[in-house]
Amino acid sequence: MVEVKNLVKRYGNHIAVDNLSFTVDKGQILGFLGPNGAGKSTTMNIITGYISASEGTVTVNGIDVFEEPEEVKKMIGYLPELPPLYPELTVLEYLQFVADIKKVKRSERKKMVEEIMDTTKITDMKDRLIKHLSKGYKQRVGLAQAIMGYPELIILDEPTVGLDPKQIIEIRELIRELSKNHTVILSSHIMQEVNAVCDSILIIDKGKFVLQDKPENLSMHFGSTGGLKLVVRGDKEIVINELNKIDKITKIDESEALEEGTTRLTLYCDENEDIREDVFYSMSGIKTPILEMQSIRMSLEDIFLKVTQGNDSYLEGEEKDPDGDYIEDDKVEYDEIDAGNDRDESTEELRAEEEGSTDAGDL
Amino acid sequence: MLAIYKKELRAYFTSMIGYVFIALFLAIIGIHFYMYNLLNRVANFEYTVAQVSFIFVLLVPLLTMRLMAEENKQKTDQLLFTSPVTAKDIIMGKYFAVFTILCIVIAVISSYPLIMTLYGDVPFATSYASLIGFVLLGGAYIAMGLYLSSLTDSQVVAAVITFIVFFATLFMEGIARSLSTNSRTAFIFFIVLIAAICLILWTMMRNLPVCIGTGIIGAGILTAIYLLKPTMLDGSIVRVFNWLSVTVRFNNFYMGIFDLADIIYYLSITFVFLFLSIQVIKKKRWS
Fold first, then answer.
1. Which among B82, B89, B207 is the top mutation candidate for probing chain A, defined by the most A β-carbons within 10 Å of its own β-carbon?
2. Is B4 near chain A, with CB under 8 Å?
3. Domains in chain A with CATH codes
4. Mind listing the pLDDT tens digit for each residue in B73-109?
5. In chain A, which residues have their Cβ closer than 8 Å to the Cβ of B75?
6. For residue A230, what are the β-bridge partners?
7. Which residue stretches of A261-315 are H helix?
8. pLDDT tens by residue, A269-279
9. Which terminus in chain B has less CB density within 10 A, N or C?
10. What residues of chain B lie within 8 A of the CB of A74, using their CB?
């Protein structure tokens, strides 16, 4: 459906998109991942025909964006980073205007506007001026704008920014719903989102293609590692000495203890090894009670950080779901979002720590 | 185009700008109409129209400043430029929305000569010819304002620049009158002009050969004219300034001269600036 070939975008000497190629199949949801400034928005702007490329081609349904922009624009709905809203219009007026410029047939217009307000849950707000809406509602009006006319290709730049967890789940449901009849490209910073919604994930960094694969296959690209995060009451040296006796542990990292008299460690081992019992018996042997124990697994975040940070790779703790699956169950997913927010902070923390450690790259 | 036209027109009347523009316009014209025509018992409405032509300088920036600058700032241009509407549709829709507001005012004003028929004979031909000139002048100013608004993403900057440019067009005529007409001054003036053009080209394109090439060719042609046929340059500065002065031609209308050349002049100014606005939009895509 969408084919991007050798796309290059230069701003003077700065290269925003560097020889990027990928394809999206019909009915697929493609997740676009990358750190800030990776070129996600630029790429999206090029596909929608908002800006041009320096080199390369983009075709949608076989039609070249640069040669026949009007034709391609008919097939695309786009929600940019900032929803393009007119604050002085009411929601209804705005959506009617959008329907008008998207050339929705006059006879279908009223029904479609109502239908879309319904699916994006903004019917209650239809007579409010857009400038009086909260960020979440503005985002939803933006989304309504993007799906107006039910274009074949819907491009969403960070669609869930500014929404509360309940709305995020609703929007994800909506995106999944949309993907039945539409092709969707979305970008995001939130890994769970991409993991939960997308059929295919594309990671780019500094404008360059890093990898594209199904979410479940991503971890295969990297030798994944298992391990434990541990907080133990006891002297650091004694604890480490004791833990070194366990052969399965390949590496021990120290972190700064948050409580007095405790030791905070990260233990690494091969993924298929289970060291939890060994650690338990070893610690109980020297009477140093375990206060916290947490399994680590390679999450999408880790993959993301690993591929986008080059040698600065590191691992980060994550609670393992009991059933290992948080996609199906909304309640669990809800918790995951909160966990995700916490994790962002701990990510920063960990990064600072890891930068000090010289052998972080050997993981 | 119709969608954009309707939206813009609505925007003027949901905010205050549209009403303020119409009210101020009518107030200023009303006062002049009363002072010149009614109080002094002069039947020539064209005098009033000529007196108030400065009002475009004050009021048109009010209408045009937000046209494109606001879209650029709110990033709503992303919606417009990724929708199946062409740059031409966008610019024309916006232009006609502002033009409609001007027409509302003109419609009200055009009843004034009729009012005067109550008191005696009114020279309708010159009155309405001057009004047609007035509309054409306004249309040209609106196109200029729209173009200047498309260059920036700040309404204030757009308004200030528009105001300065409009003000300059008012003074062109006066400047032109006081300028020397001999060929040597003209030669120096055009050399400076070519240098300025080269400088602008350099800041826009950063392409040395093109700049120097333009400069050399321009200076060469100019020198050739100066050496071979200096009479061609006589009075040319005045001609240039008069040409730049949008108001000079309006005088013809008010003196009752209904010249096709003047109409074409205004229409082509309008056309050029609308064309440039469309190019600005298209260029943004390619920058």
1. B82
2. yes
3. 2-220+348-362 (3.40.50.300), 223-296 (3.30.70.1340)
4. 988 999 999 998 889 999 999 999 999 999 999 999 9
5. 80, 82, 84
6. A265, A293
7. 276-285, 300-308
8. 776 677 888 88
9. C
10. 84
